[in-house]
């Protein structure tokens, strides 16, 4: 059973929280960024996640008030009708259901915003995130191959 969560909007001023999460090499392992080494990188990441059509939230345990990670709906290249899901959790929140709860909250948020399709890009070897996507109704559409991502990048899709 997933924990009760709430999503609290993040802003460009939340760079320190992005830095806290993103500086953990295990958290950043499968992200599109290397582990953060300077607080200014957290500011840049917060800016990219919260502006230009992107929306991001802090995942908060509704009972304890503990922050568990970041959930976002990001605008992709040439995508007017769907958003991409981005999720990264604090290491101490792994395996406790926060990911599933956050993805379900993002699905509901997307529908409220008028988006009936979502995409998820997951590094092929990130089996935990792939299982999470499938558990939440996403289906594998394609495995993309790039020279800098080994072995591949899985494109998952969700339709309401």
UniProtKB/TrEMBL annotation:
It comes from the Bacteria. It holds the Pfam family Acetyltransf_3. Residues 5-160 form the N-acetyltransferase domain. This is GNAT family N-acetyltransferase. It comes from Pseudoflavonifractor gallinarum. The lineage of its organism: Bacteria, Bacillati, Bacillota, Clostridia, Eubacteriales.
């Amino acid at each position: 059973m997933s924990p009760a969560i709430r999503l609290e909007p993040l802003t460009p001023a939340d760079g320190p929280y992005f830095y806290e999460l993103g500086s953990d090499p295990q958290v950043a392992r499968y992200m599109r960024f290397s582990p953060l080494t300077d607080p200014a990188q957290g500011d840049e990441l917060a800016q990219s996640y919260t502006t230009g059509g992107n929306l991001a939230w802090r995942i908060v345990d509704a009972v304890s008030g503990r922050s568990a990670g970041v959930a976002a709906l990001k605008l992709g290249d040439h995508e007017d009708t769907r958003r991409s899901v981005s999720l990264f959790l604090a290491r101490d929140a792994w395996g406790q259901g926060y990911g599933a709860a956050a993805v379900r909250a993002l699905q509901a948020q997307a529908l409220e915003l008028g988006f009936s399709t979502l995409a998820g890009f997951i590094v092929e070897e990130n089996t935990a995130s792939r299982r999470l996507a499938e558990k939440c109704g996403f289906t594998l559409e394609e495995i993309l191959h790039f020279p800098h991502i080994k072995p591949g990048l899985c494109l998952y899709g969700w339709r309401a």
